[in-house]
Design brief:
Largest sheet: 6 strands, antiparallel
Strand content: 25-35%
CATH architecture of the largest domain: 2-Layer Sandwich
CATH superfamily of the largest domain: GAF domain
Number of strands: 19
Strand order of the largest sheet: 3-2-1-6-5-4
CATH topology of the largest domain: Beta-Lactamase
Mean pLDDT: 82
Helix content: 40-55%
Length: 520
């Protein structure tokens, strides 16, 4: 008896080793089938898995069974296998012919005679995933000892099947991710926390010539490129997402826009742990070259317009004065006045276009940063706007600055940005009594300069678009006046170049508030 127990233990240890070494599901199930009969000394064995959708048992692997038997399915409660799965307990039958629980369906189709059965459920986390069955004890009847050994085997088999399924699932997800990773048109690089490259797709390989340089770390990936900020700076950054730009001048201009995204995993306590980076690269060469051409074109026409406009406005002014002082015909008075008014309007548009072109070509190194008082700047800008819009009736300015707010920025650029926001607050406001409110405050390491109005407000769907170049909200909504649609784009560029941002809040029929947020 002791010898038999030792042999059973040795068998189970050997079985455990064999099962734990198999990860491919088909190979594992075949191994389970071959071992099952040896564990309890049976002629053969059957393995059924439970279909979660239909709640039916089926043969996933059926060694030596005819094809029509392999296709058979059993409902829960049907036959020995179905009863075992439904009740989640082992069953021994040593006289199958006289036991009504034994289904003769499989025997009838296979021609095999079942004399005795030992059936055990395979259970994981309290859930039956299948049934393993030993058929026809070769020596005597199935015993309680056989049942105990077979239950231990069934438990090991269930764990092995679950592990194999998890492995297959992870393997399939990895395959899908690799397909997506390699097929996306953007360049993609996956690195560890130190920037060591784990995988990169074909687009990144093409952009950075990995086949040529054979770099293994992202810090060495941008050879021949200028990159801002540097990869070393990004790797040491606390931000979850870091944006960067890449440029190569020779042999041909090439521009990439990038985002470095921190990847996290959770430990057993649910704490997020940084485990790597995903670097995304987008080719924006065509966009940048188009922007460069557009800037050159706008700069050219702006400067070309200034000389003839100066002549037109100068002579229009003289002609208008002559018409008024010397009593020239009414037609001459009206015509000269119209030419002068439209010429001045066109001059304002050209000046705004020149301002836009100038700031579009600026970079951070060209900023003339000084420290200045925000309230002083606001008052100066308001005084200028009062003169500019002196013909606008019922226009009121209010200033709300309750603390000393000092800015360290390019004063002229900030002043132009405020001017653009005030112009918009007035021009696009059809209210009979127009109100413009200006405020400044320090908050959370930033200075906030705000311009609010009592205008018609901006539809929510437009808030993402209003800072785009040459974009204006539909004329029928705003009662739009002449303009290029570049004022808010100029403000956004001013914010960006100061490492700040501009945002808007608005309510229909209640007004809008634009806030320029700048770092202290």
């Amino acid at each position: 008896m002791i010898l038999q127990s030792q042999e059973s233990l040795e068998m189970l240890v050997m079985v455990s080793r064999l099962l734990s070494s198999k990860l491919e599901i088909s190979e594992l199930l075949t191994t389970i089938m071959r071992l099952a009969s040896r564990v309890v000394g049976a002629e053969r064995a059957s393995l059924y898995l439970l279909d979660e959708k239909t709640k039916e048992l089926y043969f996933d692997v059926a060694l030596g069974l005819p094809e029509d038997v392999q296709k058979m399915r059993f409902q829960l409660g049907e036959g020995m296998a179905g009863s075992c799965a439904k009740e989640a307990r082992s069953i021994i039958i040593n006289d199958a012919a006289s036991d009504p629980r034994h289904s003769k369906k499989a025997d009838a189709k296979s021609g095999y005679t079942t004399r005795s059965l030992l059936t055990c459920p395979m259970i994981i986390k309290g859930k039956v995933i299948g049934v393993v069955q030993a058929i026809n004890k070769t020596d005597g009847d199935f015993s309680e000892t056989d049942k105990n050994n077979f239950e231990a085997f069934a438990s090991q088999a269930a764990i092995a099947i679950e592990n194999s399924r998890l492995f297959s699932s992870v393997k399939e997800e990895k395959r899908k991710m690799e397909i997506v990773f390699k097929k996306i048109k953007e360049g993609a690089i996956l690195t560890d926390t130190a920037g060591e490259i784990l995988i990169l797709n074909s687009a990144a390989d093409l952009y950075l010539e990995h086949d040529k340089y054979k770099f293994s770390n992202v810090t060495a990936a941008f050879q021949g490129f200028s990159i801002k900020p540097a990869p070393e700076t990004i790797l040491g950054c606390a931000q979850t997402v870091s944006l960067f730009e890449v440029c190569r001048e020779k042999p041909k201009k090439f521009y990439l826009e990038g985002a470095a995204i921190k990847l996290f995993k959770e430990d057993k306590d649910g704490v997020s742990i940084h485990e790597g980076w995903l670097w995304i690269l987008s080719d924006i060469t065509a966009q940048r070259l188009e922007e460069h051409m557009a800037r050159n074109f706008l700069s050219l026409i702006s400067h070309k317009f200034k000389t003839p406009l100066a002549s037109i406005n100068g002579y229009a002014h003289i002609l208008n004065e002559e018409a008024q002082s010397k009593g020239l015909p009414e037609m001459v008075k009206k015509s000269s006045g119209t030419i002068l008014a439209q010429g001045l309007k066109l001059n304002t548009l050209v000046e705004s276009l020149l301002d836009f072109v100038t700031i579009e070509n600026l970079d951070e190194t060209a900023l003339n940063k000084i420290s200045f008082d925000a309230l002083e700047l606001i008052n100066e800008t308001v005084d200028m706007m009062k003169i500019r819009f002196r013909d606008v009736a019922n226009l009121t300015f209010k200033t709300a600055v309750t603390e000393t707010v000092t800015l360290n920025a390019d004063r002229n650029l900030i002043k132009n940005a405020l001017k653009c926001l005030i112009e918009n607050a007035i021009k696009f406001n059809p209210a009979p009594e127009k109100l413009v409110i200006l405020s400044a405050q320090n908050r959370d390491g930033h200075t906030l300069l705000s311009v609010g109005d009592n205008g018609p407000g901006i539809p929510g769907e437009e808030l993402e678009n209003i800072f785009n170049k040459f974009y204006q909200v539909e004329a029928s909504f705003t009662g739009q006046v002449e303009g290029w649609g570049i004022g808010l784009s100029l403000v956004k560029k001013t914010a960006d170049i100061h490492h700040g941002r501009i945002f808007a809040k608005s309510q229909l029929q209640r007004g809008s508030a634009f806030t320029l947020l700048l770092p202290l």
